[in-house]
Amino acid sequence: MSNRNSVGREATDRVVGAVKEAAGTLTGNEELKAEGELHQEKADAAREARREAEAAEVAEGRAAADTAEREAALERDALLAETRAEAEQREAEIQGRQAERAIDAEQHQRERTVERVEEAQKAAAQHSAAAADTDRAREQQEADALRDAADDNREQATNLLGEERKNA
Questions:
Q1: What is the mean pLDDT of residues 20-29?
Q2: Is the pLDDT of residue 135 over 90?
Q3: How far is CA 101 from CA 90, 93, 95, 97, 112, in A?
Q4: N or C: which end of the chain has fewer CB within 10 A?
Q5: Predicted pLDDT of residue 105
């Protein structure tokens, strides 16, 4: 059901409920009054279900945006690491041509440093990915909880409607 139809149905149930409740109160018909209250409760439950469904959609959108942002940051970090490694390699080659003997020892030291940097960057990237996975899972759990609450409210509204139809 579209949001507009849902809101219209809520308003209709609320007005019908208020009219029946008022008519029941005026005529002393407790059954009609109770039926009016049920209509209003149904409208409240439907509104709450709609709001929770909307909140779940927003949470899912935020989770997706956060995930995309984290993935972009990880990719940017990897590209920066690659660019740095390439720049260091070019510098090592230039120095290698200028003073081969002295540079051989220095080149060896630089390669070890690059390996350590890459290992540290790899470890940092893995840590960031694990944190992103944890955040993504938590946000998905929140979205699932909101969706479950919306489903419960929908079910409550359906049950109230069934009771209303039994009473009618």
A1: 91
A2: no
A3: 18, 13, 10, 10, 18
A4: C
A5: 76
Contact yes or no for 21/40 (Cβ under 8 A): yes
pLDDT of residue 11: 85
Residues 103 and 96: beta-carbon distance below 8 Å: yes
Q: What is the mean pLDDT of residues 54-64?
A: 91
The CA distance from 42 to 21, in Å, is 14
| pTM (predicted TM-score) | 0.39
